[in-house]
Amino acid sequence: MKKLRILLTTALALALSSLGVQAASAADSTAAHCADASRPAAPAVQGAAEPVTVWLAGDSTMANPGVACPVGWGSQFDALFTSDVTVRNLAVGGRSIQTWLYESAVSGTMGSDGECVLTSTTYSSRWQAMLNSTTGMKAGDYLFIQFGINDSSPTCPRHVGTARYQQLMTMMARAALARGAHPVLLTPVAALTCSGSTATKNRGFVTETYASGTATGSPVIDLQTLSVSLYNGLRFCPHNGDWGSGPVGAFFCNDRTHFETYGAQRVAGLVAGDVRRQNLALAPYLK
Q1: Best exposed site among 75, 120, 194, 260 by fewest CB in 10 Å?
Q2: Distance between CA atoms of 144 and 139, rounded to whole angstroms?
Q3: Distance CA 213, CA 233 (A)
């Protein structure tokens, strides 16, 4: 009997010991699992953003400033992006889309078709620079095109008819697409004209800009509508006619067409805001 009791006691001790080891192992496993679950996941490693160049083609309302007023909105565009974006502003004052493209090759003579006669089809140096296969537009870049102010002139060389305007804008957009760049078309920014207490639209070539966008699958920023809405939001109308002082004087040059630095900054903000609203691929580069 004594020997049997010893054997039973030994067996029971071994069983209890085995259960203890298993319980401890399960507890350790549970604790380890909880610890892993509570530990924050390591952040995903993101590659550096691909550098992008934003090319600007337009007139004085977009161009870099000279000594004083006017200040084009394009000169304020770069500050709205991260350092991965470089803005190349090739807008030039006084240009229609045709004189920007062909410069002095656009004559002062109007042809029987109602368009200014071209003496040469050689492109201007600025458009050639954009088309350069080594240093010009590359895949992933952007081309913002805004004309339609000087183009409305009735006389050459600035005059551009609506059909010709659409043709040239479409050509520029397709040239960008051929290089893997993304064209963005803009209607012309509005000057300030008041009808009583309301700022009103005063630019043409809107239909043609949208038609070019449709023909090339390019986004259109309706800068005319956006700018007029801004002027109304700032209550620029009605006005007493003293255009050089007060809020209007801080926004515009005396001609109510071109911008002081503050006005250029606000218009650049309109363009950037619509890039974000339309969720263009350029939007993540905005600050």
Answers
A1: 120
A2: 15
A3: 28
